[in-house]
Amino acid sequence: MIKQHYQSIIVQTICSLLIPFIQLFALYVIIHGHYGPGGGFQGGVLLAVSIILQRLYLGTGIAHQKFPPKLALALGAIGMLIFCLAGIVPMAFGGAFLDYGNLPLFWIHGAELRAAGILIVEIGIGLAVFGALVLIFDSLAGERW
Amino acid sequence: MIWQIDFWLLVILIVTALIALSLHDLLAAVAALAVYSFLVALLFGQMGAIDVAFVEATLGAGISGVLFIVALFFTRRRSED
């Protein structure tokens, strides 16, 4: 569908300048999610938006070389795996499902351990949402990959 | 909670919803729908639900507009009814 470059130097320059800042803000939203507004879902959506913007202005030919759809599939699966492990590993150490207080990180305790558990889960959710949204866009655009 | 902001946001919200329903050019309807989503996000933020407003601004005004436009490539641009 979108094979070629977008034929405008202004659009290309603005998009290539904008993408790193979108990704930096997405990482901030994911990491800072348990202190303020935001979280894994919103940060994952922002990351996916940056990749989709790249696909829109570069055309799918070059953009699929820069970020292949199979990588999006793998990242989504890894995110889901991180979430499931953060849920199941505390059960092996005597807690309930998603009980961050029983994660096997023995050098931190108490509230800090729970905050670290929330951070791990947010990273997993962010990766899963990112992969899923990029894959939805690629499937809708109808390219063979 | 400032009732003037609330009132005018709701009025513009209803107007953009009616515009998005009544347009025959589907690309313009998608743009009106993005404006609607962003106004809903402003309304959520004004009511203090910052997290929900963030989701609405990224998903409603960002991703869903792009996905609708991609879907438009596979159909006609004008609606019949």
Q: What does the average pLDDT of chain B come to?
A: 90
Average pLDDT of chain A, rounded to a whole number, is 88
Largest sheet of chain A: none
Beta strand % of chain A? under 5%
Strand count of chain A: 0
Helix content of chain A: over 70%
Q: Give the helix tally of chain B.
A: 3
Distance between the termini of chain B: 41 Å
Label the structural class of chain B.
Answer: mainly alpha
Largest interface: A-B, 19 and 15 residues
Distance between the termini of chain A: 13 Å
Q: Which structural class fits the helix and strand makeup of chain A? A: mainly alpha
- Give the assembly state of these chains: heterodimer
Structure description:
The complex is a heterodimer of chains A (about 140) and B (about 80). By secondary structure, chain A is mainly alpha-helical. Chain A has one domain (about 10-140). Helices cover about 70% and strands about 0% of the residues of chain A. Chain A has 5 helices and no strands. In chain A, helix 1 (about 10-30) runs antiparallel to helix 2. The relative contact order of chain A is 0.17. The model of chain A has no long low-confidence stretch (mean pLDDT about 90). With about 80 residues, chain B is mainly alpha-helical. Chain B has one domain. Chain B has 3 helices and no strands. The chains are: A mainly alpha (about 140), B mainly alpha (about 80). Chains A and B meet through helix 2 and helix 5 of A and helix 3 of B.
